[in-house]
Amino acid sequence: MCWASAHVTKKYDRAPRQTGETRRELQMQPSDANDRDPRIRTPPAPRGEQPSCSGPAPDPYRAHCAMMLQAAQYYAAQLHWPVLPVHTTDPQTHGCTCRDPGCTNHGKHPALWNGVRGANADVEQIAEWWGGEFEGMNIGGATGEGMGLFVVDLDGEAGRRSMEDATAKCGRLPPTLTAQSGGGGVHYFFLLPPDAEIRNRTKILDGVDVRSTKGYILLPPSLHRSGRRYEWLDWRSAAIAPNWLLDLIASRKQAISQPTHHCEGVVLDTNDPVVQRARTYVSRIPPAVSGQGGHAQTFMVACRLTHAFGLTIEKALPVLQEFNLRCEPPWSDEELMHKLVSADACEDRQGRPRGYLLHRSRQ
Q1: pLDDT, tens digit, 9 for 90 and up, residues 272-305
Q2: What is the side-by-side strand order in the sheet with 178-180?
Q3: What CA–CA distance (Å, rounded) separates 196 from 178?
Q4: Among 49, 174, 274, 295, whose Cα sits 20 to 30 Å from the Cα of 20?
Q5: How many beta carbons lie within 10 A of that of residue 139, not counting itself?
Q6: What is the pTM of this model?
Q7: CA-CA distance, 48 to 347, in Å (whole number)?
Q8: Is 60 exposed, middle or buried (0-12, 13-18, 19+ CB in 10 A)?
């Protein structure tokens, strides 16, 4: 089985046979919206030379080098993605191949002197790189204008929780080309919109970064320093990003990237009638329980406070802290603040104005 097929079969109950079935299972059909977009290239199911079942087992390092070359050539020749060699883990020293003992970006920084600017989709150049000086190196894809895609990078548990909160408020992400990093993160690939400027950004939410023009992303089957490989989780056409995600990336509110709100010294405003109405409303909501949708439940309360009642984060926090006393287990103040900041940054999914519950005669 070729490198790419091996890294997507985990999505299925069984490994697809190397027949037309393989192509049908791996080459997902785009949605109607994507069908109408001429910029979309549906990546065909990756194929390659089949390993021989006879003879001695190949040397693991030689097999690794051959796989990296095959993958880089596939991205360049079949998908027309500009790629570049990226440092990896030295099989002998187990350090970064840059050989800097103080390297702080182990196996993730470009091996080319000119970095991502040197990315190329020329198959002869690819063969020269991964078949020669940069043999066995990781593969970086030039995001943005190069690939025609931008990537939303979820870093570990923090990124997953941030995206869970955002989608609970703003709507689900559409099915799209998706990879898992060797470090356990998730990369969502979306079409680069022609009418919006998407830049490289860090922490649009806690643990959520964006890779676009002048940036790059490691591609499967690159090797993480942990020994795990990057893998394709969902091999399909890249989708068009939802408007709420584009708005979030474009705005990058200061409150999201560098929260200026603090928990210390914030007290419940018992003289504010809106706060009192919000307290009564929240007291009727069942507590959040871990393992039973606790993240979504708490985020929903944060959304009600900031959007339905139009409270500022400072006034909403003590009310959310009251709710938190009933949660199992309770959240930390930092986690509550994070949820309020994320909720305040999102637009209401149904387009309702802030304070919409205040116009109702009864809750």
Answers
A1: 889 899 999 999 998 888 777 778 888 889 989 9
A2: 201-205, 208-211, 149-154, 186-191, 178-180, 231-234
A3: 22
A4: 174
A5: 30
A6: 0.60
A7: 46
A8: exposed
